[in-house]
Fold this protein.
Amino acid sequence: METQSSFTAPRGSTSGDFYARGHMSANMAVQAYFVIIIHFFDKYMKAGGKSVTYKNTVRSCFVGYIVQAIVNNFLPLLFIRLQGQYGLKLSEVTMLITVNFGIQLTVDLLSAFFVDRIGYRASIVSAHVLAAAGFVLLTILPEIMPPYAGIMTAVAVYAVGGGLLEVLVSPIMESCPTDNKETAMSLLHSFYCWGQVGVVLLSTVFFSIWGISRWKILAVLWAVIPAVNGVLFAKAPISHPVPEDEKAMGLGELLKSRIFWVLFAMMTCAGACELAVSQWASFFAEEGLGVSKAAGDLAGPMMFAVLMGSARAFYGKKGEGLDLDKFMTVSGVLCVISYLTISLVKSPVIDLIGCGICGLSVGIMWPGTFSKASAAMRRGGTLMFSLLALAGDIGCAGGPTLVGLVAEGSTMKTGILAAAAFPILIVLLTRCVSKFIMHNS
């Protein structure tokens, strides 16, 4: 059943006039959206080979992480609608999330063995094609085959694209000739946060104005972004992360390296730090602001994403004058403080503040670890980035799992207190990697 809009008509106008104007605004917004996309597309298709530079590659990398945010955050907004429209069970809906991330984890692992063989360009373009195809199929397959099987197939298609994006975008960015690779990497990862905020906010506005029954239109609109960005990647210059005169590390050499396992543990902790608290962001917003569950589901995750993105964007813009090791160490300490604040202070408002501080503090951890890995293992190549992406995803699953296991025998706050071990490890491991880099330089 479609949820009714909570908007009321302004004074001096009838409800019909108000909604007619709402539909007109939605149509104008969609038309403007397509005009911008077509103009953007036409500009780059007409560009000569000499005018397409690494700046275009960097911008396409930014959009690549927005595409991944769409892959991970759009479908959950439709769960209630899909349950009502197709009669899905709650267990079936939650399985869609499991399959999405499970496939992405599998792709993280397997991509290390085929990306170098088929090439970065073919891989990154394929990732965008699969992401776009998955969203289009989401609107078609449930109508021509059993609905659940159709939705699951569409999810599987765009999940493969999302997994490839997670593995490929960072090394492509790392290979671009930027002024400061550490700040560029941090700025890159901020775009996942902005993508998450944009998907949730714009989708919510679309559904409020046009109705959630038209979700298929929005799915096709979101599919336009990976389709266009895939074309741009097909024209943009792409370099391999390992220089041509050097040989990339093999799996055996990588697994025998002690510093690799330190970086693997560091990335696992980065993912755990991020998800152990962010999964409770809706609850903290609901309790701290005294709002409804629906409002908390919107405000909590968006607050966390905005603050995490702000930290990444700040380092991306101002990081040239900052030491990455010190920035990560301070962020780790701040993250420990946020965990202690949430777990030890009995105040909903303070819990919400602690959640916000956590979002701000974890921002640098994931991109910072990628940057330190590139500096410590210059021949790591695709294999290293692939396994580190896998480590991050393991942490994203392990952090909330630890909180849940501890909370079962006590309380949620005790679970978060136990998870404070992750940012403490981040601080210690950052110091360890720094010493290794200094010794080998």
About this structure: Confidence is low (pLDDT under 50) at residues 1-26. The two ends are 63 Å apart (CA to CA). The first helix runs from residue 15 to 46.
